Amino acid sequence: MIINGERSLGKFVMCIDNKSNPASLILGKVYRTLPDADAEPHNMLRVIDEDVSEPDGYLYPISMFTPIELPEVAERVLMAAGD
């Protein structure tokens, strides 16, 4: 996936812009992403946001996030929390 012009294969991103949807995204929060090959060509990213009623996440502009790398233990905890 490409985020802010950079190639990233990470599973997690941080919200850097929530102005268009402050109820669903928290600025500075780490979010889990889901693969979506159809969204990427449109500069969109599928994210599990604050509305946990939608397990398939929602599409947001990639520009609202930045890729992050987490320690393995943090990834395991966040992945388990999403199950």
The unreliable regions are 1-9
By DSSP (H or I, 4+ residues per run), the number of helices equals 1
| Rg on CA atoms, Å | 12 Å
Strand content: 25-35%
Report strand order across the widest sheet. 6-5-4-3-7
Mean pLDDT: 84
Structure explained in plain terms:
The protein is α+β, with helices and mostly antiparallel strands and 83 residues long. It has one helix at 72-81; strands spanning 2-3, 6-7, 12-15, 30-34, 44-47, 58-61, 65-67. Residues 1-9 have low confidence and may be disordered. The longest helix is centred in the last third of the chain and has 10 residues, at 72-81. It has a 5-stranded antiparallel β-sheet. A two-stranded antiparallel ribbon has the order 1-2. It has one domain (2-81). It is built from 1 helix and 7 strands; from the N terminus they run E-E-E-E-E-E-E-H. The chain is globular and about 30 Å long.
Q: Could you provide a short overview of the structure?
A:
This protein is an alpha+beta fold and 83 residues long. It has one helix at residues 72-81; strands at 2-3, 6-7, 12-15, 30-34, 44-47, 58-61, 65-67.
Could you name the key traits of this structure?
single chain, 83 residues, alpha+beta, five-stranded antiparallel beta sheet, two-stranded antiparallel ribbon, 1 helix, globular, disordered N terminus
Detail the topology: elements first, then pairings.
Layout: E1 2-3, E2 6-7, E3 12-15, E4 30-34, E5 44-47, E6 58-61, E7 65-67, H1 72-81
Antiparallel strand pairs: 1-2, 3-4, 3-7, 4-5, 5-6
